[in-house]
Amino acid sequence: MPVEFTPPRVAVVIDKNTFTRELIAASGVFAICLPGSALIDLTYAVGSESGRALDKFEHFGIDTLVTPLLGLPVPASGCSAWLECRLIPERHTEDAYDTCFAEVVGAAADARIFRDGHWLFESGNADLQTIHHLGGGNFICAGSVVRAASL
Ligand SMILES: Cc1cc2nc3c(=O)[nH]c(=O)nc-3n(C[C@H](O)[C@H](O)[C@H](O)COP(=O)(O)O)c2cc1C
Q1: 15 in ligand 1 pocket by Cβ < 6 Å?
Q2: For the chain, how far is it from start to end, CA to CA, in angstroms?
Q3: Confidence check: pLDDT of 143 > 90
Q4: Are 17 and 25 contacting, i.e. CB atoms less than 8 angstroms apart?
Q5: Among residues 52, 54, 82, which one has the least CA distance to residue 66?
Q6: Ligand 1 pocket residue status of 16, Cβ below 6 Å
Q7: The pLDDT value given to residue 123
Q8: Sign of the C-alpha dihedral, residues 44, 49, 50, 53?
Q9: Residue 39's pLDDT band (boundaries 50, 70, 90)?
Q10: How far apart are CA 113 and CA 129, in angstroms?
Q11: For residue 110, what is the DSSP state?
Q12: Cys staple from 80: which of 60, 128, 133, 141, with CB 3.0 to 4.6 Å?
């Protein structure tokens, strides 16, 4: 979730027992990727394995591109956006709540779904629309935007 806009900072919960957490602690950097609905199966599969046991990119045949600033591998297709993040060390929240804070130093989005600072959820870009895990491999796909009427 976003915690600040200027500078752009996020908070993300990453279990301390994961390989991801170990890599972040060692490198101080990570990427956050927003898979679109076309990647639901891959997202669930990748999230159900550990990088300690297998190379997820290789095992699931994930083509990657390297992010420009921090040189991080992200899926080359199927994500609506990705963020390059530099960890802001906050030992207490990391240990107590598995919550990591980071500054976003770079970001990119697919112009088919995010343009001029706005999300565009249209019938033609359903495969890129964001997914939200309900648990157990069940996801909600973000669909039509409803604008609040001024009462
Ligand atoms: C859809 C999905 C979402 C997940 N989200 C999180 C999360 O936000 N934080 C977390 O610590 N684990 C999350 N998990 C669990 C990790 O993906 C799981 O512990 C995984 O084995 C970690 O891999 P690693 O050891 O390579 O880091 C999620 C799993 C799935 C399937």
Answers
A1: yes
A2: 29
A3: no
A4: no
A5: 82
A6: no
A7: 87
A8: negative
A9: very high
A10: 7
A11: -
A12: 128
Of 1, 14, 15, the one to substitute when testing ligand 1's pocket (max ligand atoms within 8 A of C-beta) is 15
Query: Are 1 and 97 in contact, with CB atoms under 8 Å apart?
Result: no
For residue 138, the CA-to-ligand 1 centroid distance in Å is 14
Mean pLDDT of 5-30: 98
Q: How far is the CA of 42 from the centre of ligand 1 (A)?
A: 13
Neighbours of 131 (CB within 10 A): 19
Contacts of 114 (CB under 8 A, 6+ apart): 80, 81, 120
Encode pLDDT of 87-126 as tens digits: 999 999 999 999 999 999 999 999 999 999 999 999 899 9
Contact predicate 107/67, CB 8 Å: no
Q: What is the pTM of this model?
A: 0.94
**Whole-angstrom Cα distance, residue 60 to residue 129?**
21
Q: Which is the closest atom of ligand 1 to the Cα of 139?
A: 1
The pLDDT value given to residue 145:
84
- Between CA 93 and CA 11 the distance in angstroms is 10
Regarding the beta carbon of 13 and ligand 1, being less than 6 Å apart is answered yes
